[in-house]
Design brief:
Largest sheet: 7 strands, mixed
Number of strands: 7
CATH architecture: 3-Layer(aba) Sandwich
Strand content: 25-35%
Number of helices: 5
Order of helices and strands: HEHEHEEHEHEE
Shape: globular
Number of domains: 1
Helix content: 25-40%
Distance between the termini: 33 Å
CATH class: Alpha Beta
Strand order of the largest sheet: 3-2-1-4-5-7-6
Length: about 180
């Protein structure tokens, strides 16, 4: 990612306002309506975590979370939200540029989340990061129901990329694609 992109993300996160935190802890979009599938113990990885709403939600469920983002301002907002809403010590915040590759080799995770950030080159590493029996929850921008563009997934892209997983839910419409899958 270009330095200007990182600065743009920092600027966006700071614009929300100092002391405003990230708002609320929220489940990832791909899991809404299926929260019972999320374990109450184990490890989670939240890639491109932004202001940490999902990471804090996962920690509140009882998971130990590694939250990764390129923006120091976003990570700081997430840490602030975690101070208010998450059990202490449950989240490790990692600054990393996903365009440079997969940021962690900490083994496998019981839940892996990636929301609104699409880098198809990372799909194999993302799949490998999910523990057997673990959940993968992805939401990306999609060409389906939208005009397209380089940041949008082609129809069926997520299902094809994670073909070895058991699909629990898949939806493509209105410019978004969601995949919830379990690694066998």
């Amino acid at each position: 990612m270009a330095a200007s992109d990182r600065e743009d993300w920092d600027r966006r996160h700071r614009a929300v306002g100092a002391g405003a935190g990230a708002g609320a802890a929220l489940p990832p979009d791909a899991l809404r309506g299926r929260l019972e599938l999320v374990p109450e113990t184990g490890r989670a990885l939240d890639l491109a975590c932004g202001r940490g709403a999902v990471a804090v939600w996962l920690a509140g469920r009882g998971l130990d979370v590694v939250a990764v983002d390129v923006s120091p301002a976003g990570l700081a907002a997430g840490a602030e939200l975690a101070t208010a809403l998450a059990p202490p010590g449950r989240i490790r915040w990692v600054e990393a540029d996903l365009d440079d590759g997969f940021p962690t080799d900490d083994g496998v995770y019981d839940v892996v989340v990636r929301q609104r950030f699409r880098v198809p080159a990372l799909y194999p590493a993302l799949a490998a990061a999910v523990a057997p029996g673990g959940l993968l929850a992805i939401t990306v921008l999609s060409e389906v129901g939208d005009s397209g563009g380089r940041f949008r997934a082609a129809p069926g892209e997520l299902v094809a990329a994670f073909a070895g997983f058991d699909v629990l839910a898949h939806h493509e419409a209105d410019g978004e694609a969601h995949l919830l899958a379990r690694r066998p």
